[in-house]
Amino acid sequence: MIPYGRQLISEADISAVERVLRSDFLTQGPAIEVFEAAFAHVAHAKHAVACNSATSALHIACLALGVGKGQAVWTSPNSFVASANCALYCGAAVDFVDIHPGTLCMDASRLRDKLAHHRSSSLALPSVVIPVHFGGQSCDMQAIHALAQEFGFRVIEDASHAVGALYQGKPVGDCRFSDICVFSFHPVKIITTGEGGMLTTQDPLLARSLQRLRSHGITREAAEMHQPPDGPWYYEQVELGLNYRMTDIQAALGASQLGRLSEFLARRRAIAAIYEAEFKDLVGIQAVPAFTESARHLFPIRVPAGKRRRIFDALRQEGLGVNVHYIPIYLQPHYRAMGFPMGLCPEAEAYYQEAISLPMYAGLTDSELTRVVNAVENCMSRY
After folding, report:
1. What share of the chain is helix, strand, coil (3-state, %, to 5)?
2. Of 100, 254, 262, 267, which residue is most buried, by most CB within 10 angstroms?
3. Is 59 exposed, middle or buried (0-12, 13-18, 19+ CB in 10 A)?
4. For position 383, what pLDDT does the model report?
């Protein structure tokens, strides 16, 4: 079975992890800062803060921006549930902004319409908006930033799919148009640490807050303490944080993988180019606007809704581990129980009914790629 996504681990990756296992530090050691510095350089960010998952990163990003009870966070329905759950962890309300039918990302024009409706109806505006860079391509961040300035909300980019993506020719993660950007290193993502996440920001105060929040709210910095330290062992918990630290084992793997980022991206983009050429007249394909260069985490196609299940099953029978990304978050039972109705985001719902994610990962061989192309063409001709 050819999976829809998987990691690509080299001997150099294994050696990097082995060096940590033979060192004095398995966690809270020097490998973390090395990985953070390397990632900040790649993302053109002043600060990078590593976490044990992107879900954890989203949570503390919300906390660092003051999200709490009585506030609202808006995000895209076309994402994994973590993009919305992070607000619920903080006691805030959640709402959703529909996607653009071509890009499958949060539609800035729909965001504007929803904001304007809430303002004119005296409804609560969001304190934070979390656009999701679905499939590896950036939302239109300049347009969203302009709305943030007009309507007074903060922005967290959920770039879990978008390590190495570009927006307006510059790296996603430089936070030109956001407060914080979050990345994922799950094994199916562009690079992996097993489980892991990273936050980037240009704001030193936000960076310090994120560093404390990932580690119990504890500081060892005298300037942040409430009293002079008793000695070099002294620390203070100055806020309620969590244990969201990444291990040095994970960081070593991540830094090694980061060294091959350009190689991974080139292969993913080459695969995407072949898919686009072969399938452009056969299935619906995610539109990639001129302002972005996708990292190609996913390659979703759209097939007739009434035939999606038969095509999906046929592709599985052909040996392709295809998947579907995503069920709109608000259709999950936990969110339906909160009162979210069918029809809230028609474009996201229509896309879900038609979506199939094809195999897309850097280790996909040419022969496997040929199998995928042939299988899709055969199944589409049948159905």
Report:
1. 40, 15, 40
2. 254
3. buried
4. 85
Q: In what order do the strands lie in the sheet with 170-171?
A: 170-171, 166-167, 292-293
Residue 36 is inside which H or E element, if any?
helix 30-43
Q: Are strands 320-321 and 2-3 parallel, antiparallel or unpaired?
A: parallel
Sign of the C-alpha dihedral, residues 214, 215, 217, 218? negative
Q: How far apart are CA 198 and CA 221, in angstroms?
A: 22
The CA–CA distances, whole Å, from 59 to 16, 65, 156, 199, 313 equal 29, 10, 11, 11, 36
For residues 132 and 129, what is the distance between their CA atoms, to the nearest angstrom?
10
Residue 59 half-sphere exposure toward CB, CA atoms < 13 A: 22
Which ranges of 225-287 does DSSP label H, i.e. alpha helix?
248-258, 261-279
The pTM (predicted TM-score) of the whole model is 0.97
- Domains recognised in the chain with CATH numbers: 2-258 (3.40.640.10), 261-382 (3.90.1150.10)
Q: Give pLDDT tens digits for 109-145.
A: 999 999 999 999 999 999 999 999 999 999 999 999 9
| Burial label, 187 (beta-carbon count in 10 A; 0-12, 13-18, 19+) | middle
Residue carrying structure tokens 């998952």 = 53
Tens digits of residue pLDDT in 193-240: 999 999 999 999 999 999 999 999 999 999 999 999 999 999 999 999
Token pair 């993502």 is found at 189
Strands 320-321 and 284-285: what pairing?
unpaired
Hey, what amino acid is at 170? K
Taking the C-alpha atoms of residue 67 and residue 88, their distance in angstroms, rounded to an integer, is 10
The amino acid present at 382, given as its one-letter code, is R
